[in-house]
Write a structure and sequence with these properties.
Helix content is about 0%, strand content about 80%. It has about 210 residues and is mostly beta strands. The protein is elongated and about 75 Å long.
Length: about 210
């Protein structure tokens, strides 16, 4: 209904991973071992207003968290190394959504949005031999835009749960600054673009306009 405020929070892209690998090469008998544990999650709060019946405009945030720890070794010596990485980021931008129908039980909708991102990260590596390094990163440019379809099921007159599935295009330029414990450091840049298919589920509150 026109004038209603829409408050929502969604969760997507949650993952836990624990992987072990053994790598061998044809030019050496050495076998390289790696054990990696990682976690990632996206939280997606939003607020919007029905500017007319079934049509919402507003703004959203995305908090992305990505952490990992990796232990490496090989069977030719006793040297081991450990790498810890953390890459938090924040995105902000507008969205628009249109609901179809007048059902009191639930409604399908289409959703479009765009976001600009801010992010930085750190990766620290240390070896049992005493060497170490640190790599700091920050976004020079990061943005995305997407189109999604979804459905909201109304638990009550004011509360609903929803799910969306869409397609998103993003571009990112990240600058990395590598600093070893000995020797000279250097900077390098990563530039990529991609399409992905995000899935979000969440909860929404519909607050009627005060009379």
């Amino acid at each position: 209904i026109k004038g209603t405020k829409l408050l929502g929070v969604g969760i997507g892209s949650i993952y836990f991973a624990n992987s072990d690998s053994e790598t061998s090469y044809s030019n050496t008998p050495t076998v390289y071992l790696n054990d990696t544990r990682s976690f990632g999650m996206t939280i997606y709060p939003s607020v919007g207003w029905f500017v007319k019946d079934n049509f919402v405009v507003g703004g959203n945030l995305s908090f992305n968290i990505s952490n990992s720890k990796s232990d490496s070794s090989n069977d030719s010596n006793t040297t081991t190394s450990e790498t810890k990485s953390s890459y938090p980021s924040l995105y902000i931008g507008p969205f628009a959504r249109y609901y179809f129908g007048n059902s009191s039980e639930g409604k399908p909708f289409v959703h479009v949005n765009a976001q600009y991102g801010l992010g930085k990260g750190k990766s620290e590596s240390s070896s049992s031999s005493g060497s170490s390094s640190e790599t700091n990163s920050h976004y020079k440019t990061d943005w995305n835009a997407g189109l999604a379809v979804g459905y909201e099921y109304f638990l009550s007159e004011y509360i609903g749960v929803y799910a969306t599935l869409g397609i998103q295009y993003s571009q990112n330029i990240t600058i990395y600054e590598y600093e070893p414990s000995t020797g000279s450091g250097y900077d390098y840049t990563s530039d990529y673009s991609r399409f992905n298919v995000p899935l979000y589920i969440g909860l929404q509150i519909h607050l009627p306009e005060k009379k």
